[in-house]
Amino acid sequence: MKPRSGPVLALLFGAAGWGLVWYPYRLLEAAGVSGVVASFASYGLPLAVALALVRSPWRELRRGGWPVLVLSFAAAWTNIGYVLAVIGGEIMRVLLLFYLAPLWTVLLSRTFLGERPGIPGALVIVLSLAGAIIMLKPPGAGLPLPANGAEWIALSSGFMFALSNVMSRFATHVGTAAKSLSIWLGVSLIAAVWIMIDPGQLAFVARATPVTWGLLAFVGCFIGIVTLSVQYGLSHVAANRAIVLFMFELVVAAVSAYVLVGETLSAREWLGGALIVAATLFSSQLEKPHED
Predict the structure, then answer these.
(1) Buried/exposed code over 60-83 (b: 16+ C-beta within 10 A; e: otherwise)
(2) What's the rounded Cα separation, in Å, for the pair 274 and 112?
(3) Per-residue pLDDT tens digits for 48-63
(4) Are 269 and 93 within 8 A, CB to CB?
(5) How far apart are CA 201 and CA 9, in angstroms?
(6) The model scores a pTM over 0.85
(7) Domain spans of the chain?
(8) pLDDT for 194-216, tens place per residue?
(9) 3-class DSSP state for residue 3?
(10) Is the Cβ–Cβ distance between 110 and 259 less than 8 Å?
């Protein structure tokens, strides 16, 4: 049975949200708020609201077991890594590296969900790797590797994104609210530890304006809504199909990056990106029919 429209629309809304939220994070960075602090505020706010409103929130999390624990920490690096990458790198390059996720999803879905990729899975791997090599190949000599720290972060974040998607699908016994809570908790804990290690990141507090605090609050509310939407969608849509729907983020990001900051890709980068997109589209062929 095909997924109902509700989960699909929820994933499209989440994808559009992630395709736009990079800009507020850059505004916060310009105001002196580091990506880690912005991540803590973004996820700590919905976490605080959830803990205040949800009755006995820890019970279902404990019942979720190790899949929810893995989901929590994979999502933590996914989201913190996303923020750091879009602040420090070119939007479309870091997002295309992030969208090598189908490559990792093929392998992880086989391990945790029992999905056999076969020939379609092999094509996803070939197209993804070919796209990455073309996009990352520097002019002249040199290995096709990420060009800077932001791109390495995006690559690792994409792997964790695939892992968190698969874990969300694997943990069918856990509800959307508990999964979202685990993500907010994971990001908040990792960011809090990071800030304690480097407390200088809090220096912005002394000079922060009401606009800065308002933007932090807005991003926190927005991230909370997006997380709930995505987890609801992932609970009803197969992992590889979800990856395809998330590609709407690339469309939104490409338009917004051009309009807001004038970022564009070279012809070679477009070609590599097209192969990565093709791999993502082809990964929908890996989906097994299932009942919602």
Answers:
(1) bbeebeebbebbbbbbbbbbbbbb
(2) 29
(3) 887 777 666 667 667 7
(4) yes
(5) 37
(6) no
(7) 5-286
(8) 999 999 999 999 888 999 999 99
(9) coil
(10) no
